[in-house]
Amino acid sequence: MSTDPSPRTQPGSYGARDITVLEGLEPVRRRPGMFIGSTGPSGLHHLIWEVVDNSVDEAMAGHCTRIDVTLLADGGVRVADDGRGIPVDTHPQHRSKSAAEVVLTVLHAGGKFGGGGYRVSGGLHGVGVSVVNALSRRLVLEIDRQSRHHRIEFADGGRPRTKLEVVGAAPRGRTGTTVSFWPDPGVFEDIEFRAQTVIERLQVMAFLNRALEIRFADQRPDHAQQVTFRYTGGIVDYVRHLNASKEALFKKVGSYGQAEETQEVEVAFQWNSGFYESVHSFANGIATSEGGMHEEGFRKALTNAVNKYARVKGQLKGKDDNLLGEDIREGLTAIISVRLAEPQFEGQTKAKLGNVSIRSLVERATNEKLAEWLEENPREAHQMVQKSTLAARARLAARQARDLTRRKSALEGAGLPGKLVDCSSRDPRESELFIVEGNSAGGSAKDARDPRTQAILPIRGKILNVERARIDKMLKNVEIQALIAAIGAGLADDFDVTKIRYHKVIILADADVDGSHIRTLLLTFFFRQMRQLVEGGFAYVAQPPLYSTLVGKEKVYLKDDSAKAAFLAAHPDHRADFQRLKGLGEMDFGELRDTTMDSGRRSLLQVGVEQAAIADEVCSILMGEDVELRRHFIQTNAKDVRFLDI
After folding, report:
1. How many CB atoms within 10 Å of residue 302?
2. Burial class (CB in 10 A: 0-12, 13-18, 19+), 371
3. Where in the chain is the domain with CATH 3.30.565.10?
4. pTM of this prediction?
5. How buried is 217 (Cβ within 10 angstroms: 0-12 exposed, 13-18 middle, 19+ buried)?
6. Catalytic residue among 213, 514, 598, 645
7. By the number of CB atoms within 10 A of the CB, which of 4, 550, 593, 642 ranks highest?
8. Catalytic residue among 68, 437, 535, 591
């Protein structure tokens, strides 16, 4: 009897039967992260963006004037528009299905590929609403078209429950599409939507689509609210909104635009008295957080136009060096919005625009139109050039301080800051840096750490508020010097995320008001001066417990008020007085290790930046000088603190 293994079971055998073909929407169910990024809060909210983007595309095509987004009382979402309505006739390639059913059940099916339905669109890949269907336990599509109200329902990951059928007459004169969906709790970690996240995104869409009305309503118990966005000024209003938390250098918001056959650009801009640039770009309504050709064209032409103007007006003399782009962009808030027929985005994330032709258009428009604006607004132009000149002087002073910092950095071989207690591992992927406020807490953390992978950097008091300081002043600050040296990847434009010495940079501060302030100062520093650290997912906030209590002889730690409420609900007869832990110094090293530092038991909050413009605004509100605006922001967001990121 042969003992040879069959061809199917031979080690290393690989044949046609090993090839799995996933049909319909099954690939989405198997690998949701490939389509929506994650199954966490960002992926959950991405479902709304996909549906709303389709309605916005209708608006960009000139067929939609209003979009209604409603968070339903039962946890679902309804998105309705007054566009043309998804076609309801039989699809020529799928003769047993209506076009509407094909759009909901077939990946890469939509009206954005042939060029007839949409001149421009943000939904480039055609996977949007079908992915939403695949990841919902139920979805209802309603279409008003040709005076009829059509309806089709899907369930259990996108399977049709009914055929598309006419269920009545459309409201008089109405056309449009309504999508209602309920996310699948078997797919997502949490299916509760955050109203503020939705509101922020919808507001941006309204800014980018002049005069489009977007209404939001939250019908959930204890969340009821309504808000309407409509901006007749479009991106001019957007710039004014972003600068509301800053001190504008002058009142005017400049703008210009230019169009060609298949593409157009619109730019709005205003300088403020701050030290950071806030240049945000969009292509067909999609945020291009990594920039691209449109941003390149704007930056190059901006530098050229301002230098040319400054020399003609004598603000730059013959012997003076030209202003650099970074000098001119100090304090600049600008929105660059382009629309084009065939956008070339890099990857499904659509973070960078690759069309070379749009660079030429933006550069040409900026050279011509910005030069005209500077001539027509001499007082504002003079103020801006004067600010840029001061920025250039500060840049030269900062270069000297930065060179000194480089010479002292570990990468240059001159050693790490003296107060850093480093880990023995030299592999950044497993190494962690805990930034701890105060010497006593630093001592406890030193004893509580795993010396192989965990490093401790104590800092003294509250670091400099970098939102209100130029880089030359910042680099003289001892605590900031220590942070730069310990992380080891440089600063600002010189920051190289591939050189960071730790893949987890963890802020460890008290669970009280002072601790919150320290966290905000540090996160502002990271966002403004080491942005790639945040964007790469390397910045974290430790979650030390706020309360402790005794259950028998065992001490139980509770992270926050929500955890305390949950504990009391589970232990209604609990009689011990809870102890509020005011500081890390109140814990001995064993308690600190067990509750906050041990990788097997701790809870870390990863800090992320999904929309740079919103993050920019939050930093300005929290760390700026407008007290009333800051108070309003905190009161508005306090109930959603579990979602808070910078």
Report:
1. 22
2. middle
3. 26-229
4. 0.72
5. middle
6. 514
7. 593
8. 437
**Can you read off the two tokens belonging to residue 317?**
């003399």
CATH class of 235-396: alpha beta
Active site residue 18: no
Of 242-246, 473-477, 493-497, 614-618, the poorest mean pLDDT is in 614-618
Q: Enter the tokens of residue 596.
A: 């906050």
CATH number for 414-544+586-643: choose from 3.40.50.2300, 3.40.50.670, 3.20.20.390, 3.40.630.30: 3.40.50.670
Which residue among 363, 422, 432, 510 is the active-site one? 510
- Dihedrals phi, psi of 18, to nearest 5 degrees: -85, -10
Give 286 or 119, the one with higher predicted confidence: 286
Q: Tell me: the pLDDT tens digits for 149-185?
A: 999 999 988 889 998 999 999 988 899 999 999 999 9
Q: What angle do CA 406, 409, 411 make, to 5 degrees?
A: 100
Neighbours of 524 (CB within 10 A): 22
The residue ranking higher by pLDDT, 532 or 71, is 71
Q: Is 4 among the catalytic positions?
A: no
Q: Taking residues 126-136, what's their average pLDDT?
A: 80
Q: Is the dihedral of CA 584, 589, 594, 600 positive or negative?
A: positive
Instruction: Please report, in angstroms and rounded to a whole number, the separation of the first and last CA atoms in the chain.
Output: 69
Residue 403 annotated to the active site:
no
pLDDT at 557: 82
User: Taking all residues of the chain, what is their mean pLDDT, rounded to a whole number?
Assistant: 83
Catalytic annotation, pick one of 512, 594, 626, 645: 512
**Given this structure, which CATH class describes domain 26-229?**
alpha beta
The CATH 3.40.50.670 portion of the chain extends over: 414-544+586-643
Q: Is the pLDDT of residue 453 over 90?
A: yes
Radius of gyration, alpha carbons of the chain: 28
For residue 76, what are its two tokens? 């679902």
Q: How far apart are the C-alpha atoms of 299 and 362, rounded to whole Å?
A: 9
d(CA 635, CA 247): 22
DSSP string for residues in 206-229: HHHSTT-EEEEEE-STTT-EEEEE
